[in-house]
């Protein structure tokens, strides 16, 4: 067994390879999660110690720390002994005393390792609900007559695409979004991004005001929504739902049979979850955060 530090985008592909190999409809991670999370911002690599574990030339685990003390990981269940080693690596990769690790509630073996290491499950606070939708019977996508629904045309749309993302996710009381035109171009160059799965709704003046990006795992015919949003000035018009349905129709034409999304499940921000439920998504698991 060999551990090595993350060295760049080529290693992200190996992390995605492991994620795809282990994927099931009950998985927390999708190959699109990694691409979006790694590339949506520019200049954050120093904040993200990341390591990969290999056996016979194949990656069997990855761990991604985010300073000051957050850990995400994916571990091939054939190598359970690596869980303790990953936690020791995590302790050395970050500073301070506080640590947190988020799992799906179904990852009971990893949860037990965390408990043995002094972690305790949070009883309240933020959690995310993982939801699934069969794409066999999608309703049609509709927008108000004076709005335009279209797919992104490529990097020429990066600045506008980033601007509507910032509008949607720069909310009162929260840190402003750090997505820029430069970082969105990174996303567009990442595998498996496809412009035909990145949809916008434009206001009558041509300004993008809602969006949905879908990532397609072709092998498993599984589409992931990440991210979806609406400019606050244009909410409650059904625009995010329209963009989502358009993106899902495009994904189905490319072979997708099911779609997944993970909105907030707690009562802090319930509207996204309710929007997905109105489209037919149903929850199948929730996240649990363990702290030490």
TrEMBL record:
Gene3D superfamilies: 3.40.630.30
Origin superkingdom: Bacteria
Alphabetical list of InterPro entries matching this protein: Acyl_CoA_acyltransferase, GNAT_dom
Domain N-acetyltransferase intervals: 147-292
The name this protein goes by in its record: N-acetyltransferase domain-containing protein
Species for this entry: Sphaerisporangium flaviroseum
């Amino acid at each position: 067994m060999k551990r090595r530090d993350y060295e760049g985008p080529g290693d992200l592909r190996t992390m995605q390879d492991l994620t795809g190999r282990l994927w099931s409809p009950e998985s927390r991670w999708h190959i699109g999660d990694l691409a979006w999370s790694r590339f949506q911002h520019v200049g954050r690599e120093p904040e993200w110690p990341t390591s990969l574990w290999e056996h016979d030339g194949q990656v069997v685990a990855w761990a991604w720390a985010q300073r000051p003390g957050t850990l995400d990981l994916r571990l091939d269940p054939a190598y359970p002994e690596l869980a303790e080693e990953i936690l020791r690596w995590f302790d050395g990769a970050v500073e301070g005393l506080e640590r947190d690790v988020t799992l799906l509630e179904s990852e009971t073996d990893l949860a037990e390792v965390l408990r043995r290491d002094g972690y305790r499950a949070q009883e309240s606070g933020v959690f995310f609900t993982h939801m699934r939708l069969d794409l066999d019977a999608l309703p049609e996508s509709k927008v108000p007559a004076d709005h335009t629904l279209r797919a992104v045309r490529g990097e020429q749309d990066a600045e506008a695409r980033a601007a509507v993302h910032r509008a949607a996710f720069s909310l009162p009381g929260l840190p402003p979004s750090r997505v820029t035109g430069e970082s969105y171009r990174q996303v567009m160059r990442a595998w498996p991004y496809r412009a035909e799965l990145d949809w916008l709704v434009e206001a009558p003046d041509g300004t993008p005001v809602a969006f949905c990006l879908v990532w397609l795992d072709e092998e498993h015919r599984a589409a992931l929504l990440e991210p979806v949003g609406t400019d606050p000035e244009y909410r409650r018009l059904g625009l995010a739902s329209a963009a989502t349905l358009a993106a899902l129709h495009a994904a189905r034409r490319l072979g997708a049979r099911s779609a997944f999304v993970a909105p907030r499940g707690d009562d802090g921000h319930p509207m996204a979850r309710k929007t997905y439920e109105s489209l037919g998504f149903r929850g199948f698991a929730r996240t649990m955060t363990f702290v030490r």
